[in-house]
Amino acid sequence: MPHVVVIGAGFGGISATDELSKEGFRVTLLDRFPYNTFQPLLYQVATGGLNPGDVTYALRFFAARHEGVRFRRAGVVAIDHDQQRNHDQSLRNPRRRGVHDVDVYPGGGAQGARHDLRQP
Question: Where does 3-104 sit in CATH, by number?
Answer without folding.
Answer: 3.50.50.60
